[in-house]
Amino acid sequence: MSPGLHEPQPPIAAAAPSKGSALAVGSLSTAQDGKYQSLIANLQSFRTVDRQMLDRLVDGATFLDASTYSSVHVTLSASEYQVLLPKAAALLSQLLDGLQPLGTLHLHNLTSVDSFSSELTLAGFTILSTDNTLIAQKPAPATTALSLKRKKTDPATKKALWTLSAPTAPPIDAEALLTPADRARPVPTCEPVTSGAPRRKKACKGCSCGLRELEEAELLASKTVLLDGSQEGEAVEVSHEERERLVRAARAAPKATSSCGSCFLGDAFRCASCPYLGLPAFKPGEKVEIDFGMDDI
């Protein structure tokens, strides 16, 4: 035992909980020598006392309700304290849970004060006194220094807090950042087109690279495959000029008249001067249309 361990020490200032029920924890040994009964009698003089035997708490046969007791008093023999020491952590944790905030734990008849002081500290207790009886206290719940009351915020201050721009910063004129070169419209330019080389899909408006002329020449030289309008429906390849003639004939077809009345049946029933010559067969009265979906086949 450390020298001066049992010398009187100044008590540590701590707020005491309101007086409530106490818990007396004893053993078969202290019940036989009368120490347990004496402890209960002293406590019952000013408060309600619950009783528990040590072995039931250590073996897990019973558990304490949380924050129930204002104080817990343990009285054991010296040998029982030595046997309890290796299992003290679990017991002290249960006693800490059963105490009210700022409740106290009293270990009576304790001889090995140093060992239990360390265990109490590790369990979360605050040591108050080691004079005759080792007394430890359950700390109060952690509290915050901030006030729980919400402070009303001025509407103008709240608006300033949520604004996305600093109120003192002048607005930036984006137009003023542009240079004359930025304002100048880019002149569309393209490289001269070469026949047979990869090129754009279609000539642009106002084409000056020669692509439009090349497209027109290819269009004039291209062939169009049409159905001849006969019953067999054979494919006929015609030139660009013939294709244009057929388009004009199809546009004028609703206005044309027939002397024989068989023009709608197809070329096999048409005369040489028939305005529908070369057009597919159609139903009487319907508009004649040509499907050029087979172009360039």
TrEMBL record:
Domain Anamorsin C-terminal, first and last residues per copy: 189-290
Residues recorded as binding [4Fe-4S] cluster, renumbered to this chain, are 260, 263, 271, 274
Which residues are in the Fe-S cluster assembly protein Dre2 N-terminal domain? 35-149
Location in the cell reads: Cytoplasm; Mitochondrion intermembrane space
Sites binding [2Fe-2S] cluster sit at 190, 204, 207, 209
Cofactor names from the entry are: [2Fe-2S] cluster; [4Fe-4S] cluster
Q: Where is this motif: Cx2C motif 2?
A: 271-274
Motif (Cx2C motif 1) on chain: 260-263
Which GO biological process categories is it annotated with?
Answer: iron-sulfur cluster assembly
Question: From what superkingdom does this record's organism come?
Answer: Eukaryota
- Give the UniProt entry's GO cellular component terms: mitochondrial intermembrane space
Tell me the segments the record calls region Fe-S binding site B: 260-274
The terms under GO molecular function for this entry are: 2 iron, 2 sulfur cluster binding; 4 iron, 4 sulfur cluster binding; electron transfer activity; metal ion binding
Q: Does the keyword Metal-binding apply?
A: yes
Which keywords are on file for this protein?
A: 2Fe-2S, 4Fe-4S, Cytoplasm, Iron, Iron-sulfur, Metal-binding, Mitochondrion
Question: Which family does the record claim for this protein?
Answer: Belongs to the anamorsin family.
Give the domain note: The N-terminal domain has structural similarity with S-adenosyl-L-methionine-dependent methyltransferases, but does not bind S-adenosyl-L-methionine. It is required for correct assembly of the 2 Fe-S clusters. The twin Cx2C motifs are involved in the recognition by the mitochondrial MIA40-ERV1 disulfide relay system. The formation of 2 disulfide bonds in the Cx2C motifs through dithiol/disulfide exchange reactions effectively traps the protein in the mitochondrial intermembrane space.
Protein's recorded name:
Cytokine-induced anti-apoptosis inhibitor 1, Fe-S biogenesis-domain-containing protein
Give the source species. Answer: Mycena pura
